[in-house]
Amino acid sequence: MDFDDYQHLTFERLDHGVLRMTLDRPERLNAAHEPMHSELARVWTDIHRDDTIRAVVVTGAGSAFSAGGDLGMVQRLTGNYPGIVAMLRETQELVYNIVNCDTPIVSAINGTAVGAGLVVALLADISIAAEGIRVTDGHLRLGVAAGDHAAIVWPLLCGMAKAKYYLLTADFVEAAEAERIGLISRCVPADRLMDEALAVATRLATGPQHAVRLTKRALNNWLRLAGPTFDASAAYEMLTFFGGDVAEGVDAILTKREPRYPTATEA
Known about the structure:
By secondary structure, the chain is of the alpha/beta class. The chain contains 14 helices and nine strands.
């Protein structure tokens, strides 16, 4: 693969078959609009098929890893039945294409990671975050169910009690705490982040390739077992795009105020 047709992801081939992939919309904090979301969904099948790629390091351009789904995209989806049906399919493809990609993936979480960006950060096989950064699923702040990836992986990573707390409150988790509860693999000083991520990726790329990939494939059966739970959560997320809470959630974020969700204020 030469990846020339990707517009919002950039690629650099490094030694030992390591591919560095960068989410590249820094002017929008790497928030995923429709074209970028589509690229994030399909890139993993391209990587899976490229035998010259032995490991991937994924990071964000600029100061953020990804601010999640672009709010303009959220507004365009609200109440849009054809768009929601298409997004449901693409949301499932994004998650399952990462799970089914045999190539080992290392995320270098260089800044805030939210929503759709957090899918890539946490479904990576090894997640390494810079000290001081924060992550949040963020869906409930928007007024929609947590459907991108959370139900398939958060309970496995940090346990049901912590998963429910952070998903239902949409609180941010700082990197050190995320490492402590098992949500991410490692937390390192910011100036060492890329070096550490590349070192891990190089170790994977120069290890026994069949053993690495088959071990990943076997471990990911835990995620496949949770597939029905994820499918339900993705459908529930899309269902909530037909309610009034999402419009209020987006407006509250844009106007920097506390939301007044209609379902919480109805008599």
